[in-house]
Write a structure and sequence with these properties.
With 421 residues, this protein is of the alpha+beta class. The chain folds into three domains: 2-160, HUPs (Rossmann fold); 171-274, Uridine Diphospho-n-acetylenolpyruvylglucosamine Reductase, domain 3; 282-411, no CATH class. It contains 14 helices and 19 strands. The strands form five sheets. Strands 4, 5, 6, 7 and 8 form a five-stranded antiparallel beta sheet that branches. A hairpin with a 2-residue loop joins strand 16 and strand 17. It is globular, with a radius of gyration of 27 Å.
């Protein structure tokens, strides 16, 4: 192994991308998001201060050309950032050929990702089929694209400065779309998106009275830079929204997926954001042992304990269980989940149990389900499985949830009800 030859530590992390893929997220985007999340988790575990990736100059060129291909606006044609927080890309100014030549001189073999040969992926088609022809026809193509990216980054920085001054002159205050600034039904009810987080308001006038050619860039800036929207609405929908503002009309701009809406009403802009759904998660660990659940900001620990009176009454964040297994799995719910709840004569669908126990639909994906030997043993705040119930034992397995250091116990909203015993 290369790491052994270089006397370096090596860690391998396997992630089930299809299981953790978000709704409407492409496999490539999901893999990229999960890869960076895994690197950040490993960085924290090791106490490291930096993550280095091997993105190079050719990747920069491909990124800019892909953005052109997809019709990105001018200010968003920049390349890959050389630095973002703890993430550094020290090779973005070095070509792939230069890196391979250096490896060859050191007697090291480069490792190719086999998915790079998959021509169904746009980047691979561009890399394999389009770029070689463009470079043959225009030898200075790479330099031209990188210069374009530099101009785009400069323009984006200018917009950021100018729009910050123009659109954020007011003191930030908390806006509520749920009746505080309007009459009639709340945005929550109107959008059907569930809970929302309200941003500070902006004045429609500040956006409307910008020169018309700057209104669309300003709207994009407002959505991406200030409000953190990951995917912009379509160009026609943004233009229609601005057209309504120019005519002095109330307007509503829906964001892709279920991420919320930008609402203009009575001269004010407010942003309704649907609370993001907890992504699916699955972690297997040894008994006794513990595992972190970063999706929930929790840690689950299982250890031996004497049986105590509270275990027979039940508590939301801990439970006493009987089990004969060396491993356990904690995961989010899945379609078709069943269990035999404590005191039930037979197996039931988990969904029916959660409905009966009054668990809100929005909280169900945040329940950490404890599975032992292929059966659901404990649903915190809801019930335990009949097979794992205490029946006069003196010792048991104690399963308990606790917040991670960065969270508080009150932030877990998945187990508000006591366990039924």
């Amino acid at each position: 192994m290369l790491a052994a030859r270089l006397e370096l530590d090596f860690a391998s992390v396997t992630i089930d991308v299809p299981r953790h893929r978000a709704r409407r997220e492409s496999p490539e985007a999901a893999a990229r998001r999960l890869r960076y999340a895994a690197l950040e988790t490993l960085r924290r575990e090791l106490g490291a201060t930096r993550i280095l990736t091997a993105h190079h100059r050719d990747d920069q060129v491909e990124t800019v050309l892909l953005k052109l291909w997809r019709g990105a606006p001018l200010e968003r044609l920049g390349g890959i950032a050389e630095r973002r927080g703890a993430l550094l890309r020290p090779l973005v100014g070095v070509t792939r050929g230069e890196i391979e030549a250096r490896l060859a001189r050191q007697g090291l073999d480069a490792i190719d990702d086999p998915t790079n040969d998959d021509l169904s992926l746009p980047r691979n088609r561009l890399r394999r089929l389009l770029l070689p022809r463009l470079r043959a026809a225009e030898p200075a193509l790479d330099e031209a694209l990188l210069a374009l990216a530099a101009h785009a980054d400069a323009l984006r920085a200018t917009f950021d400065h100018r729009f910050s001054l123009h659109l954020q002159k007011e003191e930030k205050t908390t806006a509520s779309i749920e009746g505080k600034n309007s009459e009639g039904p709340s945005e929550t009810a109107a959008s059907g998106s569930g809970d929302v987080e309200d941003s500070a308001p902006d004045s429609v006038e500040r956006l409307r009275f910008l020169p018309e050619p700057l209104q669309l860039p300003a709207l994009r800036w407002l959505l991406t830079e200030r409000l953190g929207v990951g995917h912009l609405p379509s160009l026609p929908s943004m233009e229609a929204f601005l057209s309504m503002l120019r005519r002095g009309r109330d307007a509503r701009l829906r964001l892709p997926g279920d991420s919320g809406a930008l609402v203009a009403r009575r001269g004010r802009l407010a942003f309704a954001v649907a609370k993001p759904r907890t992504p699916p998660f699955t972690y297997t660990f040894c008994i006794p042992g513990e595992v972190e659940l970063p999706e929930l900001g929790l840690r689950l620990r299982i250890r031996r304990s004497p049986v105590e009176p509270w275990m027979l009454r039940g508590e939301a964040a801990r439970a006493g269980l009987v089990a004969d297994a060396a491993q356990a799995t904690v995961r989010s719910r899945r379609s078709g989940d069943r269990l035999r709840p404590l005191g039930s004569p037979g197996s039931r669908k988990l969904k029916a149990v959660l409905i009966d126990r009054g668990v809100p639909a929005a909280a169900r994906d945040r329940l950490p389900l404890l599975e032992i030997a292929g059966e659901l043993a404990w649903i915190p705040g809801v019930t335990i499985g009949e097979r794992f119930a205490l029946r006069g034992e003196e010792e048991c397995w104690l399963a308990e949830l606790e917040p991670l250091a960065a969270t508080t116990a009150g932030e877990w909203d998945g187990g508000e009800r006591k366990t039924t015993t």
